[in-house]
Design brief:
53 residues, mainly alpha, elongated
Length: 53
Amino acid sequence: MSPLMYAAGWILVITALAAALAALHVLIHSRVPRDHGPACWWCHPHLLPRRRG
């Protein structure tokens, strides 16, 4: 097996593991009945810094 195929296989394994963990997180988070408030990064993502002023 070439090193390129080996690296591609590991990238696929890591991607699949990350997707499975993300799917579990989404399923669990969506089933929680209470409101999480503005501190919940999943419901209220803060991608950009807040403006001052």
